[in-house]
Amino acid sequence: MSHFYDLAPKDKDGNPFPFSNLKGKVVLVVNTASKCGFTPQYKGLEALYQKYKDRGFIILGFPCNQFGNQEPGSDEEIAQFCQKNYGVTFPVLAKINVNGDNVDPVYQFLKSQKKQLGLERIKWNFEKFLVNRQGQVIERYSSISKPEHLENDIESVL
Q1: Which cysteine residues pair off into disulfide bonds?
Q2: Distance separating alpha carbons of residues 85 and 100, to the nearest angstrom
Q3: Which of 39, 79, 85, 156 lies 20 to 30 Å from 62 when distance is taken between CA atoms?
C-alpha cells in the first residue's frame, strides 16, 4: 500500500470500508478491546467524535484480540458492546491483527509511517494514529494517552 486512501478494510458486516471515502477528513485510528483496562477510553473517544465530527473528523475503531485475549467476541458482539456500554457511534470495523504475520494492511501502513520509541509494533490495545486531511500519519499515541489529551493535535489539523 502506497497511500492511506488505497486501503479498504472490512466493516463489522464483512463489507469493504474504502478509505478513499475518507479523503479530506481527519482520521483517528485506534486498535480496541472490550476487556482491557483501557476500554473506558471508548467514552472519551466518543466524546471527541461528537465534538469534532461536524468539522470533518472521524474515528475508526479496529478491534484486536492479540493482547491478552481481551477482545474475544464476534464483530457483532463487539459492536453491540461498544454501543450499549459507551454509546459509540463512530465506526467500529471488523476484528483484525495489528502485529505479526497476519497483520492487517491498515496497520502495516500506519506502523510503517510512524514508529513509537523506535519500534513499529503495536505494544497494546488503544494505541492511536492521527491522520491529516491529506492521508498522512502525523502522530502516534500510546495506550496511556487519554483521548481528551489529543484535542490540541486534532484541532491543529481540522
Answers
A1: 36-82
A2: 30
A3: 156
The number of domains in the chain is: 1
* 108: containing domain: 4-12+26-157
Domain assignment present for residue 17? The answer is: no
Active site residues: 36
Residue ranges of alpha helices (H) inside 1-158 are: 41-52, 75-86, 105-113, 151-157
Quick: pLDDT tens for 85-98.
Answer: 999 999 999 999 99
Cα separation, 148 vs 142, in Å, equals 13
What separation in angstroms does the CA of 9 have from each of 106, 131, 143? 7, 16, 22
Q: What is the pLDDT of residue 50?
A: 98
Tell me how long the chain is. Answer: 158
